[in-house]
Write a structure and sequence with these properties.
20% strand, single chain, alpha/beta, Glutaredoxin, 7 strands, 41% helix, 5-stranded mixed sheet
Length: 169
């Protein structure tokens, strides 16, 4: 009967060690690749940005929170683009036209690539159920941070700077 506490202790110790090992290992979730057309009908693939820090932002012009965060996205693009960072703004194409999206982008003066998820494949691959939704991907192509809801300039800066520092090691 004395064996039961020892067996329980060993099982608990193994569980704790497994948790420590799994919690501290590097994240290996590679971002799903996609190829989507941009507003100029040029095909853009995520894999072409390997080595850069990439913020995928799923959005639509009819989404007030998406529109609200566009200024923060543009500020981050301008601040970090020369340091190995880019934003890929993926329009979910729900209730929108390419002409309407183009007019919105031109009026706002946004400098980041805007991609059109015309068939919903990228949205499906990332499990998009609400917008805005953002995925920060490191230079190795791993998803490192996910946010559902609007981003702030400070929030983007903090996360991007962290990954750029890691990349510089």
């Amino acid at each position: 009967m004395r064996r039961t506490p020892i067996i329980l202790f060993i099982a608990l110790l193994l569980a704790v060690l497994a948790w420590v090992f799994l919690a501290n290992r590097p994240q290996k979730d590679l971002a799903p690749n996609f190829s989507l057309p941009d507003l100029q009908e040029k095909t853009v693939s995520l894999q072409n940005f390997r080595g850069k820090v990439v913020l995928l932002n799923f959005w639509a012009t009819w989404c007030p929170y998406c529109v609200e965060e566009m200024g923060a996205l543009e500020a981050a693009q301008r601040k970090y683009s020369d340091k190995g960072f880019t934003i890929l703004a993926i329009n979910v194409m729900s209730r929108e036209t390419k002409a309407g999206i183009r007019a919105f982008v031109e009026k706002g003066g946004y400098s980041f690539p805007v991609l059109l998820d015309t068939e919903g494949r990228a949205s499906e691959a990332y499990g998009i159920y609400s917008i805005p939704a953002s995925y920060l991907i490191d230079g190795q192509g791993r998803v490192r941070w996910v946010k559902h809801g609007p981003l702030t300039e400070e929030e983007i800066g903090q996360k991007v700077e962290q990954l750029l520092k890691e990349r510089g090691r």
